[in-house]
Amino acid sequence: MIIGMVLNLSIGVSVRGGKLSIYEGERLLIKYVYVGTWKPYFYPVNGPGGNVVRGIDGREHHNQYGLSLAYGGHGEGGSTNIWSDYDEPPYGPCGRIIHKKFDRIEIDGEMAVFAETVEYIRPDEEIICEERRAMTVQPLPGNELTIDFKQEIGKPKDPGDNPFIIYSRVADWMRIYDAINRKRPENPGRIENSRGNIGEEATRGVTAEWCDYSGQYGGEWTGIAIMQHPDNPNFPGAFFTREYGLFSLSHRFPKDKEEMILKHQVYVHRGDAKSGKVEKQFQLYISSP
Question: Into how many domains does the chain fold?
Fold first, then answer.
């Protein structure tokens, strides 16, 4: 199936081979991989300096790839593990997030919007919950980009803390520590949050409205920020950050609710958090209808 050039000649969407791709003209913005994987994910995600996320890499933390939504962590809170991507112990057998259908795919002015229904399933194939998710991709001047997420999640039939996760495993050139060769790269990246804290120790486990990871590629700094909306439960949540290239945010499903709605924006920008004006973009995000 090919979908594109519907309302705006600069934006195109194609769906083929289990991947949804969005273009601005001939330039690929993102690919969304939704078939043949433990959980759907975005890879690549192209910004001013090129792709800002890592693909699947079996050398270390093979379960961390692209920009993605997950669940349960390593199972330490008692919920099904839809994070580790293992069939065997100690972390497996793990569950999966399964694509059921695209509810809509459309081009709306300068934006591409697609809505998807997924199911969270346990290793025994029992359904944990259903989720309707909508993702809006908008190219910005200077090859910058935003991706808005809205998740409508039904009550999980699963024990434990029921954490729903958004995360990014950044491209290797952006990381601060090379976990494979156990050394710092010549030009390390930078982690910074909305409180002005810099580095893993200052941002890991710290509540913040947003967190940003940036690095230098080909002499140009590029970053990716995850922003959380004030409407989310327990806003602002605490980010989990690692120098080897991961940052994430989780929200526990409220025990007294039948549905949880989560909203986030991912901002791919030029420069680091300050020069990329991440705080300004966050204010635009939360003030938009």
Answer: 1
Q: Is 128 domain-assigned?
A: yes
Q: Is residue 215 part of a domain?
A: yes
Q: Provide the domain limits for residue 127.
A: 47-287
Residue 223 belongs to domain with CATH number: 2.70.98
**pLDDT (tens place) for every residue of the chain, 289 residues total:** 444 334 455 899 999 999 999 999 999 999 999 999 999 999 999 999 899 999 998 889 999 999 999 999 998 889 999 999 999 998 899 999 999 999 999 999 899 999 999 999 999 999 999 999 999 999 999 999 999 999 999 999 999 999 999 999 999 999 999 888 889 888 899 999 999 999 999 999 999 999 999 999 878 999 999 999 999 999 999 999 999 999 999 999 999 999 999 999 999 999 999 999 999 999 999 998 7
Q: What is the DSSP string of 47-74?
A: ETTEE-B----TTS-TT--SEEEEESTT
- What are the residues whose beta carbons fall under 8 Å from the beta carbon of 245, sequence distance 6 or more? 54, 64, 169, 170, 171, 172, 174, 175, 176, 179, 213
